[in-house]
Each structure stands twice: as structure tokens, then as C-alpha cells.
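Hello again, I could really use a second opinion on something today. I've dropped the whole record in just underneath, so have a look.
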Amino acid sequence: MDKIPQMPQKEKVSNFFKIFPVIFVFLILLFLLANPFVIIPSGYVGVKLTLGKADKEELHPGLNIVIPIVQKVVKMSVRTHSYDLRGANSINSLSKDGLTINTELTVLYKIMSDKAAEIYIEYGLEYEDKIIKPVIRSAVRDVIAKLDSSQVYQERDVIQKKLMEKVSKELEKRYILLDEILIRDIKLPKRVVEAIEQKRRAYEEAEKMKFLVEKEKLEAERKRVEAKGIADANKIIAGSLTKEYLQWKFIENIKSYAEGDNNTVILIPYDTEMTPIINLPNTRK
């Protein structure tokens, strides 16, 4: 049987180097066509998955390169988001006095940019329903349970402050930063609201009457002090009105009157008569 002639080793190597540039260019084109470039926009970070496994180092905004087919990138927003718990998602809880309270609110939050991969690994992209919703519900029920229905109705700011403290700590443990909790509405049973309003109006009326009574007391005291002051003044004046003082004061007034620009005759009353006793020459020019 005839042997098949084999190509010399040197010729094989030579042929490989001839086709290598073609293979290299082909691989480069294939790589580019597979789109290895990923652009992460501002306000986002990327979580790189290699064969489904998340890399704990996030990709930052800008151009990033991944291995096509083998790797892909999940973009996660690190901007402020709002999560509503209203309508069907509103929270029912029991107050200290056993009444059902319905609370509607909005949560403003954002994820920690350097913990996006951790959030994705532990909770996936449904972290709102898995983290924020249960944390908020638990906090609302804990806070409401410590307050009477009247306190719930009147102290919304206190409730909001307590919720901020509790929720902020719990979310931070899960790599989420709380910006604010906005209470949209707190609904109590109608009869309870009417009773609270009636009590509030009665209190305001009582305070109004108290104010009026105090005002009248102060006015009466003012008049008493004023009358006493007038009486004391009259008593002092009456004690100082001697005959000599009155004569001196009378003469001073006559003198002042006589020195006026328009007077030439001064009448001085004595008993029931008015007798002119001073004639002043008109020397004024």
C-alpha cells in the first residue's frame, strides 16, 4: 500500500502564519459585532454578571468593556426614587386603644452606589417589595400601636419623626439611604374623628371663655388702680391748695396774661364783681 506523502513541518508553520492575520481579523470583527461595549449613564452603576454570577465590584458611569456572551451588565439607578404605599398598598394598623388606623405615605430613598451589587445579589431588582415595603409596614404598625387614636389624629409630625428614625436605621442595614417619609393621609373611623373634633371645639370654647374672664379681671383691676390713682392724686392736690398758694397762682396767671400781645385791660374778679384795675398802655409797635 502506498504511503500518503506528508507536508513538511516547516511548510505547515509557514501556512499557519499566512492565514493567522485572516483569523485574527475575523475574531476581532466577531468580537466587535457581539458588542462588548457597555455605556453606564450618569445616575446609574452597573452590576457585571459573568455566566450568571454577580461581580461585587460595580461598574461606574462611562464606557465599560465586557466579554460578549460570557458577561452581561445590569444597570441599577442610584438616584432618588419614590415608593408609594397608597390605595391598595396602604397600611392598616391598630392604635393603642384598639382602633384600626389606615395610613398612606410615600418613601423617598436611594441605594448606596457602592453596594448596588450586594443589593442585587441578596434581593435582585425587586428590592422595593422585598426591603422597603416590609420595613415601612413594620415601622408604621410599631409606632401607631404606642399611640391613642386621638394622638394619631393630632400628632402627625410626631409620627413622621418616629417613622424616619426607625425606618432610616433598618434601611441603612440593607444598603439603602432614606431621604424622607411623607405621610399622605391618616384615616380613622368617622365616629372617632367626630368625637375628637367635638372635644377639640369644646376645649377651644373653654379656652376662649377663660381668656375673656381673665381679660375682664385685668380690665377691672386696671380701672380699680386707675380710680385709686385719681383719688390719691386729688387727695394730694386738695391738701396742697392753701389760700396763699391760690393767691400766688392767681397773680402769676394774671401776670402771664397781661404780658400777652393782645391784652391792654385785665379784669380781676373779686367776689361777684369784675373791676378793671390795670390799664396797660399800648406800647407795642
Remarks:
- The chain is about 50% helix and 25% strand.
- The helical segments are 9-33, 116-123, 127-144, 149-154, 156-173, 190-240, 243-258.
- Residues 192-241 form one domain.
- The longest helix spans residues 190-240.
